[in-house]
C-alpha cells in the first residue's frame, strides 16, 4: 500500500531536513606493506573535500 503524501510547508521542512549521505572508503598503507580500509559517512556535498583532506 502506498503512503499518503503530505503537502504544504510541513512537508517541505521535513524534506529539507533529510541529509543525503555518502559512504566513503579511504585506504591507507601500513608499515607492514598491507592496506587497511576505513569507512566514513559524509554529507554528499562534502565528499570531495573529505577525500582531499584524507589523501596521503
Describe this structure as you would to a colleague.
The chain has 56 residues and is α+β, with helices and mostly antiparallel strands. It has two helices and two strands. It has a two-stranded antiparallel sheet. Strand 1 and strand 2 form a beta hairpin. The longest helix has 9 residues.
How many β-strand stretches? 2
Low confidence ranges: none
Strand content: 25-35%
Order of helices and strands: HEEH
| Multimerization state | single chain
Whole-number mean pLDDT: 85
In terms of structural class, how would the helical and strand content be classed?
alpha+beta
How would you concisely characterize the structure shown here?
This protein is α+β, with helices and mostly antiparallel strands and 56 residues long. 29% of the residues lie in helices and 32% in strands. It has two helices and two strands.
Mind sketching the topology for me?
Elements: H1 9-17, E1 21-29, E2 35-43, H2 47-53
Antiparallel strand pairs: 1-2
Characteristic terms for this protein:
single chain, 56 residues, alpha+beta, two-stranded antiparallel sheet, 29% helix, 32% strand
